[in-house]
Amino acid sequence: MRNHILVLTCIIGCGGVSLQTRSLAAQESNYRQPAWASVSEADSGQIETLSTGYKRFLGHGQHELRVVAEAERLAQAQGFRPVESLESLSPGDRVYAINRGRAMILAVIGQNPLTAGSVLVASHIDTPRIELKANPLYESEGFALFQTTYYGGIKNYQWASVPLAMVGRIHRSDGSTLDITFGLDGEPYLVIPDLAPHVDRDYRERTQQDVLKGEELDPVVGSRPDADGSVTGMVESVLREEYGVSMEDFVSAQLVLVPALPPADVGFDASMIGGFGHDDLLCSFAALRALFDTHMPERTAMVYLAANEEVGSHNVMGARSTYFADTLLALQEMRSGQSVSLRDHRSAMVSVHAISADVTTGVHPTFADVQESTNAARLGAGVVLKRYGRGTDPTSEMLARVRRVLDDNDIPWQTHTYKVDVGGGFTLGTYLSDDGMDTVDIGIPILAMHSTWSLASKVDLWSLYRYFLASYAQ
Asked: How many angstroms separate the Cα of 93 from the Cα of each of 98, 305, 381?
């Protein structure tokens, strides 16, 4: 029976079992189908529009503070209002809450109560990068440099001889603040200089990760001495006179170094987007865009933009905190107009259909052997259903629901499992599951993930957006 399968259906209440047949052709899946092959001319225009918006969003993605500010601006343009500005909530209301300027939850209130279920896409907005230490400035061999430490999983050598910008915020002791975007708006760049091949013979035996060690990731920030012959003195005077910043202000600052190159199209066919921060601004943008295009859903639709994922989701901005649970409780009380019992709150929590959205590694055309080909994710093949195993997968029922949404909406998709004993990684899903939510890991593949300039496929971005939109409409 190659062309038919038997479907066993128990007819409850009729005292029997009926056998029905369905054609396999009617069950054709979009699993591992090339995404570009099914793109229409109309789709092509929408893919470019979505990609243009994403590149603009990615251009604000150097730090969580900038991401949240841009997400708030976009949300307000779509009719979202701060949740604290309202006294009650009704179906169709569009609201958001911000956690210390570095994390954010947005929601479109559904027709059903939250205890009847909701749909959440959770992603993170922090990226692997280099951070400044609290006392960063020092002088060596006639140069002023900054002491740094890395944040998240990076390959240190990739950060050498790359134009860098310094981004973040300084809080002064008098209560004033200063947002920093040095190197993004026409200012000079900072740079971690590489060692010339003429003189690096003694260093060539270093392993890949130690080509530049962590303590050697120090950018040059000046070389001109002041009247007293001090290069650091000149840097201090520039910071003080042009920016009103003292070196003591660095103690209460969050400043990071990021590549200063803007996102751009890649390839003769312009089929890819290159840029810094695809992990995980891509999923964050797709989730936001899908939420913006969701109106009057049956179940409340939500996006959670969390921070600190790349270092374990710690701190009050990370997914380990109670921020999501606290916000959901506030939405429940505003939706119902009364205090909510612990039982009802827990009922709402465990009824969340949670999608942990995070990108994954794609097959590299030169180093394909690092992946196990049967279970590898490929650029241009659509949404990735991540099956990492070892207790991290959701229930089979959850996986079946995800497949149904993908196939019912003709969304190309694929699976990804790393080679055994080779790779892997955690997502926000671990902490969502800890809170009782049935959670699935979804993303798209990225080439050169965690590098200073990685690649994503435009059609994969489009497929992910469509999956989020369809999930909100379940």
From this structure: 17, 19, 35
Q: What is the pLDDT of residue 223?
A: 97
Distance CA 283, CA 124 (A): 8
Global pTM value: 0.91
CB 390 within 8 A of CB 418: no
SS3 string, the chain, reads: CCCEEEEEEEECCCCEEEEEEEEHHHHCCCECCCCHHHCCHHHHHHHHHHHHHHHHHHCCCCCHHHHHHHHHHHHHHCCCEEHHHCCCCCCCCEEEEEECCCEEEEEECCCCCHHHCEEEEEEECCCCEEEEEEEEEEEECCEEEEEEEEECCCCHHHHECCCEEEEEEEECCCCCEEEEEECCCCCCCEEECCCCCCCCHHHCCCCHHHCCCHHHCCCEEECCCCCCCCHHHHHHHHHHHHHCCCHHHHHHEEEEEEECCCCEEECCCCCEEEECCHHHHHHHHHHHHHHHCCCCCCCEEEEEEECCHHHCCCCCCCCCCCHHHHHHHHHHHHHHCCCCCHHHHHHHHHCEEEEEECCEECCCCCCHHHCCHHHCCCCCCCEEEECCCCCCCCCHHHHHHHHHHHHHCCCCEEEECCCCCCCCCCCCHHHHHHCCCEEEEEECEEECCCCCCEEEEHHHHHHHHHHHHHHHCC
Direct distance between the N- and C-terminal alpha carbons of the chain, in angstroms, rounded to an integer: 33
| Cα–Cα distance, 173 to 155 (Å, whole number) | 35
Identify the residue whose tokens are 């865009």. Answer: 289
Q: Is 457 exposed, middle or buried (0-12, 13-18, 19+ CB in 10 A)?
A: buried
Residue-wise pLDDT tens digits, 56-114: 999 999 999 999 999 999 999 999 999 999 999 999 999 999 999 999 999 999 999 99
Measured CA to CA, the distance from residue 303 to residue 105 in angstroms comes to 6
The owner of tokens 């601004």 is 281
The Cα angle at residue 78 between residues 76 and 82, in degrees rounded to 5: 35
